[in-house]
Amino acid sequence: xDDSYLLIxxxxxxxxxxxxxxxxxxxxxxxxxxxxxxxDGSTDATPDILRQYSEKYDFIEIVTRNNRGHRSxxxxxxxxxxxxxxxxDLDDYQYICKLDLDLIMPPRYFEKMIGRMDCEPRLGTCSxxxxxxxxxxxxxxxxxxxxxxxxGAAKFYRVACFKQIGGFVxxxxxxxxxxxxxxxxxxxxxxxxxxxxRFIHLRPMGSSQSGILTGRVRHGFGQYYMGTGIAYILxxxxxxxxxxxxxxxxxAMLWGYIKSALTGVERLKDPEMIRLMxxxxxxxxxxxxxxxTAKLNEERAGFWQPQKKGxxxxxxx
Length: 317
Prior knowledge:
Layout: E1 5-11, H1 18-26, E2 34-40, H2 46-56, E3 60-65, H3 75-85, E4 95-99, E5 103-104, H4 109-119, E6 123-127, E7 130-133, E8 140-142, E9 154-158, H5 159-164, H6 174-184, E10 188-191, E11 199-201, H7 212-226, H8 230-239, H9 248-262, H10 271-287, H11 289-299
């Protein structure tokens, strides 16, 4: 079985965290065939660190982009990802992973991901779960990511699936839209919370630009852009009231959604996926996510055509 995999890591000013990520990847039981790291205009020690590792490991290749003057999450990260994808031929690999440079990966992580895909041909994207440490504590806390989607920080894909769904949308919520599109086409998207595939996020999810609350507002915008219905976003708000940051994080997400609706923000144009997603969201509210996901995966099994040509709808911000 061909187990060649490609990593693409967009990064900007990651000197504080990246050495731990670099060391955890080069120590993997199964190393990547190629690791493209895209320096998105770093102004700290990031370029020097990348140079040191690329000189030592021949599978690491650096792509440098001009400094745009600020960190840009969502669209900016995916633009940087595609800058890395542009320098290789994706057909040379069986698997692809978009990997952030603020993670610590367990030593057999990628070997485990490939093994699980070998066991389930319909599994198109998967990941473990992210944990983080609260400042001043050695205790690890889960980032509360749902099982029906692979985690955006380490999205591992079968290349056939990645190509068929049309890759990632170049907008906020790219890491949710992709899993809905997977299910539309009969693929399965999963993440598991198990000891040997948990990885550590060196800063809380959604805090890389201007703090966690800004990230929650951005998430609310992303839910609106994706086409999420008002009933589902209200239920999500109630669910998140007792999640860190307590109350304020949930309300910030709801404000991001409402503000986008009031200002007439353009939404994703993908009617077939959005119809399926809204039906799925209602089933989640009525029956729970686990049951709704299992039912939808069973229903869409007949639509799985792994050799079919990719999606016709282009992704645009």
